[in-house]
Design brief:
With 515 residues, this protein is α/β, with parallel strands linked by helices. It contains 17 helices and 18 strands. An 8-stranded parallel beta barrel has the order 2-3-4-5-6-7-8-9, surrounded by 9 helices. Strands 13-14-15 form a 3-stranded antiparallel β-sheet. Bound molecules: 3-methyl-2-oxobutanoic acid and zinc ion (ZN). Zinc ion binds next to loops.
Length: 515
């Protein structure tokens, strides 16, 4: 019999901890729905005690997700666990994931607790979590750098107390595959009740080995859950990437002999959605989801692929959800055709008002651009959700003038609360002038960390997708804007980032902070 590998997605929790990747409640619900379509087993929807915004997002996800288990992270204390349980109340299937650091370094320097105190707190946390649900996961943070004897003592005790999943994080991405795999195997062999829990791996990618370490944890260590994120999103160098793990398990079934429940045709749509919402662009040569992942550029390869695909292809692009850019709609398409295409793309809008708004944007875009692709539709929906969720600053219109030898000028009309404001400025280029014009009114004082432009489809008539990353008072936010005019896309992206800075529900605790 083939064992099943549980796919635990933490894009909305660990992925979101990446500076600038914070998402609104509506954005998180959209991603959660896509993760459900992808058929992930567990969705870690957030860290309920970290902020009201996270609490609300987890509650909303718990209400709409029916097939995947919904999970909240909680530090090992009653307040956090109580908050997680409350946020998960409506879930069909719920999990509480509680953690405390167990490495000498973290216990002494971060927690300022003795090993015995950590041991007692871990047991109490599991007992309290079990009073809320039967599905409880425990993570010894910085587990891989922890003393193995102490770790065995803690893990044996938490399993006895009722932890059903034991996750062993390589919190700082220090592991190498063989050693990490053996570490998991040692724990499972030495802990007498280890067979009472499912073992899980959680690897960060600081040395570029997150996926390799996770797979070694599975193959050598016998883990049966992998924690991962779409596109490998996450702090620093990111987390283990879901798409790479899933396709490795599927493509090398001869070696792993494991089953995964993932609908792989939903991988690329999930990747595009996460990238579009967070503004974290996927590198072109990224395995599975990069734009070049299936492009055979060299003549020899093309010749081989044309004669027999498997000469150079180990996976099929269509199996992971790549489809050629298809013209799906145009100027004459009606509301029903638009609605049907949304359904085919698996996009569910929350209300008729949202559908009307998205349709109006579609019509406006079709006036500017003859051919509308699936990517355009996804961007329209992103913009609709974004504009609804964060409406303090709203783009109205803009004009800009640039001429060789002249300093570019821009005029931007946008709403600040209920008031319409018109501001003008000059700059080094049209984008600089536009952002200066907005800033002259908004006066955010934020520092611009990143500005990037991407074409969302091919050809010069494509919409531009602009990402702006701002930093202020220790917070980092991303804003994304799309428009066939990249200067207008830049204005929208800047306003979206200002909206995130303006939204207090986006302020949250980081999971790695001391309790
Ligand atoms: O990397 C880590 O240690 C974590 C835990 C909170 C599970 O994300
Ligand atoms: Zn982590």
């Amino acid at each position: 019999m083939t064992d099943k590998l549980i796919i635990f997605d933490t894009t909305l929790r660990d992925g979101e901890q990446s500076p600038g990747a914070s998402m609104t409640k509506d954005e998180k619900v959209r991603i959660a729905r896509q993760l459900e379509r992808l058929k992930v087993d567990v969705i870690e929807a957030g860290f309920a005690a970290s902020s009201n915004g996270d609490f609300e997002a987890i509650s909303a996800i718990a209400q709409v997700i029916k097939d995947s288990t919904v999970c909240s992270l909680a530090r090992a204390n009653e307040k956090d666990i109580g908050r997680a349980a409350e946020a998960l109340k409506a879930a069909n299937s719920k999990r509480i994931h509680t953690f405390i650091a167990t490495s000498a370094l973290h216990m002494e320097k971060k927690l300022r607790m003795t090993p015995d105190e950590v041991y007692e707190q871990a047991i109490k946390a599991i007992r309290f979590a079990r009073s809320h649900t039967n599905d409880v996961e425990f993570s010894p943070e910085d587990g891989y750098r922890s003393d193995v004897d102490f770790l065995c003592r803690v893990l044996e005790a938490v399993i006895k107390e009722g932890a059903t999943t034991i996750n062993v994080p390589d919190t700082v991405g220090y592991a190498v595959p063989e050693l990490y795999g053996e570490f998991i195997r040692t724990l499972r062999e030495r802990i007498p009740n280890s067979d009472k829990a499912i073992w899980s791996v959680h690897c960060h990618n600081d040395l570029g080995m997150g996926v390799a370490n996770s797979l070694a944890g599975v193959k050598i260590g016998g883990a049966r859950q992998v924690e991962c994120t779409i596109n490998g999103l996450g702090e620093r160098a990111g987390n283990t990437s879901l798409e790479e793990v899933v396709m490795a398990i599927k493509t090398r079934k001869d070696y792993f002999n494991l089953a995964v429940g993932i609908d792989t045709s939903q991988i690329v749509p999930a990747s595009k959605m996460v990238s579009q919402i967070t503004g974290f662009v996927v590198q072109p040569n990224k395995a599975v989801v990069g734009a070049n992942a299936f492009a055979h550029a060299s003549g020899i390869h093309q010749d081989g692929v044309l004669k027999a695909r498997d000469t150079y292809e180990i996976m099929r692009a269509e199996d992971v959800g790549w489809s050629a850019n298809k013209i799906v709609l145009g100027k004459l398409s009606g509301r029903n055709a638009f609605k049907q295409r949304l359904q085919e793309l698996g996009i569910e809008l929350e209300s008729e008002a949202e559908l009307n708004d998205a349709f109006a944007r579609f019509k406006a875009l079709a006036d500017q651009k003859a051919e509308i692709f699936d990517e355009d539709i996804t961007a329209i929906v992103s913009n609709t959700a974004q504009a609804e969720a964060s409406d303090y600053y709203r783009f109205v219109s803009m004009a800009q003038k640039s001429e060789t030898g002249e300093r570019p000028q821009a005029k931007v009309v946008f709403k600040v609360g209920q008031e319409e404001s018109v501001s003008q400025a000059e700059g080094n280029g049209p984008v600089d002038a536009t952002l200066n014009a907005i800033e002259s009114k908004a006066k955010s004082g934020a520092e611009l960390l990143l500005y990037s432009v991407n074409a969302i489809t091919t050809g010069t008539e494509s919409q531009g997708e602009v990402t702006v990353r701002l930093s202020k008072g220790g917070r980092i936010v991303n804003g994304v804007g799309t428009d066939p005019d990249i200067v207008a896309a830049s204005a929208k992206a800047y306003l979206a980032a200002l909206n995130k800075l303006h939204d207090p529900s986006q302020q949250k605790l980081n999971a790695q902070m001391a309790p």
